[in-house]
Amino acid sequence: MDGQLDGRGGPRDSVPPDPVNRAIELLRLDVPVDERAFDARVLDAVRRDARNRTPWRRRLRQPAVWGGVMAIAASIALLVVTQINSRGPATTPTSHAGAGRLANTEPLITTSAVSTVAMRSDARGVQLVRFRLAGVRARSITVAGTFNGWNVSATPLQRVGATTWVVDVPLRAGRYSYQFVLDHRKWIPDPHAPRDAGDDFGPSNSVVTVAGGNGS
Amino acid sequence: MTTHSRRGVARQGTGNRHLWLALTVILAGALAATPQGTDAQQTASLTGLDRRVSHALRERIGLVADSAVAAGLPVGPLIDKTLEGASKHADDQRILVAVHAMLVDLRVARRALGASASEEELTAGVAALRAGVSPAALTGLRRSLPRRMLTVPLSVLAALVTDGAPTALATTAVINNASRAGDSDLLEFGRTVAHALAGGVPAQTALTTPSLPAGTETGLQNTGRPPSQAPAKPPKP
Fold first, then answer.
1. A79 touches chain B (CB under 8 A)
2. Could you tell me which residues come within 8 angstroms of residue A118 by beta carbon, excluding any fewer than 6 positions away?
3. What ipTM was reported for this prediction?
4. pTM across the whole model
């Protein structure tokens, strides 16, 4: 080791240029390159590699991908189920002649002598409630209650006789307060339905209770 | 690690990202679709009041709704009461008083029925309270029927008491019938007793007449009186 290194720790200047230094000098020389062709070759190589690396058939065989697909499907199903089960008061009332699936059913139960209620349940637990008012002369009759936001024009009854009016409303299980509205101004409770005890805004409301399943 | 295994890890990472993304979508969807009182839904409910009540009343109802949400109570019955008053052209002050009263009764019903009571059960509980049923009776009903949805039993109890049946007797009768029959049969029981009461049958007799199994057409169960005296059902419409 004696006398092999200079003061900076590098090889001594007396060492002649070797092949490595010559190679470095050659590499520093400008080399003509066709840049467009070079770019095209690189891009082709990248595309080929991408196609070879992840063909869609191979992707579909990967469990992680299927996990993602299943999770997305589950999320969609969950959204649908929650939307169906979320509390929504009344759905669209159906006419007596009825175009809806429920509207064509015959009543299972008649709960009073004159008015409410006929019921049949569909697969989602929605039951058809028939509001019926007889012996009343009016130009128009509607029913307003907790199932339609107490909207006096949302649920009109149809005349089915000289003084008999009917509308079928699909309702979920629950307890609903309501009154009939004659000619958009006169409120009358259902004369043959149970009544609420409260009287916050005049005559107490009528009540219809819709059973849900077996109740347990 | 070889190039192949590195690629496999990278692909697995992409799949995991899909999985997590989907799980995030599930959670977001579930939160958005949760049926009970989130702030967003409360806001939506209050927005429904915009065209129906004055701005001043809407603001004050909003404060009451805030109190309800803070107490873990549903906003729906408060909105319903507001809309009822607006449709019946009640003045703002009267509506506000009614909504406040509803909030108070909802609190009582919640205490009586427990924290797990649904909005429908609370609404039926309020109806029973207003009919004269005591909070203790509501609690007794809850304890007697711990796993049952109480909307129909409470509604039947409220109707019976409104029709003049003594609270204690009515509560016992509803518990007895509800413990062995479904909602439909319980509603039929309520209608039967109501007919009996309207026909002059003493409440104690109407309520304590032994019931027959559900679906039986004979005896006193469906009518509260002998079959020969039963009111004729109207023809199907």
1. yes
2. A106, A107, A108, A109, A110, A128, A129, A130, A168, B236, B237
3. 0.72
4. 0.64
